[in-house]
Amino acid sequence: MTQANHSSRRDFLKKAAGVVSAASLTAAAVSEAQTTSKNSKLKVGVFGLDYTFWGIWADLMNPAGRSPGTSLFNMEMSHVWDKDIKKAEKFASRWGCTVVKKYDDMLGKVDGVINGGFYNVPWQHKMFRPYIEAGVPTYLSRPWSSRLRDLDEMLDLAAKNVQNGINVIIDASAHKRLYREYARKKIKRFVEVWIKCPLSVCIKRESKRKKGHIVSQMYLRALERKQKGSKFEGLGKVIGVDIPHEENPSAEIIIDSSKDIAQKNALTVRSVHPTS
After folding, report:
1. N or C: which terminal CB in the chain sees fewer CB atoms within 10 Å?
2. Sequence-distant (≥ 6) Cβ neighbours of residue 208 within 8 angstroms
3. Is 276 a domain residue?
4. pLDDT by residue for the chain (276 residues), tens digit each?
5. Cα separation, 194 vs 274, whole angstroms
6. Is residue 101 situated within a structural domain?
7. Is residue 226 one of the residues assigned to a domain?
8. SS3 of 19, please?
9. CA 16 – CA 30 distance, rounded (Å)
10. CA distances from 91 to 45, 46, 94, 138 (A)
11. Residue 263, phi-psi category: left (phi > 0), alpha (psi -120 to 50), beta (remainder)
12. Across-strand partners of 27?
């Protein structure tokens, strides 16, 4: 890897500063992954192929997907792990990445790891701890944890990494303000990003989601359940319909995602540097 490539990757990741919004955690520091001088893209490790977001994300990240050359992400999937080795091999064959046998075998090989599945949630705090402690950017699937004790453990780990000079992103629904304020008290360098989106826009966007990608028509079904008492298997309580989101008008960044394009909104968040 050239010094220029290494610096550009480090600068990119340093711009991800301690931010709270919704069910994941990213310790934004650069791992010593092995890359060639010709490739400055961030190498991403893939986790969680059951009931997963990867059907969408893979298309966005990989040049062979439907959205090739997504320069904003500047990422590529390089390694994959799943408890079902056959699923991992199928994914690797489709997207040209390497299968690893153990969940922590990507250490030193990737710049970040992403858990796109829901079924790994009860073990996230164990599976991804080695990566977070090594300073590898880590995205945890929502919900962040199925137990408050595990969630608190991960929040303490995030706060510790910030104190050690590693930027951290906690991306979670956090519909209660007390959740965000709890994190704010623990983390000294802290920014809250509130991404607003009217329910009507959420429903319109979801209508375009492919069948089988997570819960299709989630908001529309939640509204029908609330109004008519209909039952939908696998549909839990939905924030914005069944559970109100407690607004914070004092959040450091407030974005109305119904007005600006996703790329512009992402760049707005990326440009923030919290005060010490």
Report:
1. C
2. none
3. no
4. 333 443 344 344 444 333 333 333 333 333 334 333 345 788 999 998 877 778 778 877 776 655 554 555 678 899 999 999 999 999 999 999 999 999 999 999 999 898 887 777 778 888 888 988 888 888 877 666 667 787 788 778 877 877 776 666 666 677 888 888 888 888 777 888 888 889 999 888 887 776 655 567 888 999 999 999 999 887 778 888 998 989 999 999 999 989 888 778 878 887 776 555
5. 15
6. yes
7. yes
8. strand
9. 11
10. 12, 10, 5, 20
11. alpha
12. 168
Instruction: Measure the N-to-C terminal CA separation of the chain; round to a whole number of Å.
Output: 31
* Domain containing residue 211: CATH number: 3.40.50.720
The closest of 151, 154, 182, 179 to 243, measured between CA atoms, is 179
Angle at 19 between CA 24 and CA 47, to 5 degrees: 20
- Cβ contacts of 122-127, under 8 Å, gap ≥ 24: 122/146, 122/147, 122/150, 124/150, 124/154, 125/150, 125/151, 125/153, 125/154, 127/47, 127/103
Q: Which amino acid does the sequence have at 73?
A: F
The 3-state DSSP class for residue 7 equals helix
User: Please, what is the Cα angle at 170 between 168 and 171, to 5 degrees?
Assistant: 135
Number of structural domains in the chain: 1
Write down the pTM of the prediction.
Answer: 0.66
Q: Evaluate whether residue 5 is within a structural domain.
A: no
Classify 239 as helix, strand or coil.
strand
